[in-house]
């Protein structure tokens, strides 16, 4: 006595319609495709350290504000696009050039982990770098030539930053040139005094930041003299006429730098990844301070918010 209800009733079981099977297969294929796309997208974001991109955008706002010229929406958009492309290109090429060192020291990075080939990362990096410089060409010959200089500095840093005592200077020069490019693009080739002073202050801050980052994995902070660069953005205010609206941004910048140094200081509460990530976000606070000193507090607020955005994105995509 076998068979189910269909056999007992003398009826044959109906086959599953082919259309239903096709729909299930189609849905499964769609889910797999979405997962693959999400995986590729996540890998691209991680390679580009895009969590730090808001600090590039605040750099552009500061460079534009300090240029002393009215900024049109089109020019600002092109600067944001070009310098974002160059930043991401630099991160891609950094991973590609460091692949052998990362295989020993950071095997979880995408290339040594086998998630992507070095050749593909090189191709993407050079393509993004060329695209960024090409966008700057639309802003005039001065911006184009400055873009070529920035691209060259990025390549030199990526090729020669490991065990290089000048790597903090090279990193600072990369960021400093963002200000210079914005000034040249918006002024037609001239740079204002406040922009040059702010660029030097940013350079000092970046040298200190990179120096702190190099102490990760060490017991102490090495020499304390390089850390004085963190005070350069507040000291910039001494060269400018007093503006009352700079005070909140000054206190925010000083307080945040002190908080990050506390995290980096040797002791039981030391957290170097958070200290370095926080100092990276602090670039945007320095930008906000410079913008406020230029008499544009309405631009300083979104620059300061870029610091918060950087910290938020760092929780999803590592910034170092």
Number of strands: 0
Low-confidence stretches at least 5 residues in length (pLDDT < 50)?
Answer: 5-9
Mean pLDDT: 87
The coarse silhouette is globular
Query: How far apart lie the N and C ends?
Result: 70 Å
Order of helices and strands: HHHHHHHHHHHHH
Percent helix: over 70%
Largest sheet: none
Protein name: UbiA family prenyltransferase
Keywords: Cell membrane, Membrane, Transmembrane, Transmembrane helix
Membrane topology: Multi-pass membrane protein
Transmembrane segments: 68-93, 114-137, 143-160, 172-189, 245-264, 276-296
Give me a quick take on this structure.
This protein has 320 residues and is an all-alpha fold. Helices cover 71% and strands 0% of the residues.
How do the strands and helices of this protein lay out in sequence?
Elements: H1 5-8, H2 18-47, H3 53-66, H4 73-97, H5 99-105, H6 118-137, H7 141-159, H8 167-187, H9 193-214, H10 232-236, H11 246-264, H12 272-293, H13 297-314
Helix pairs in contact: 3-4, 3-8, 3-12, 3-13, 4-6, 4-7, 6-7, 7-8, 8-9, 9-12, 11-12, 12-13
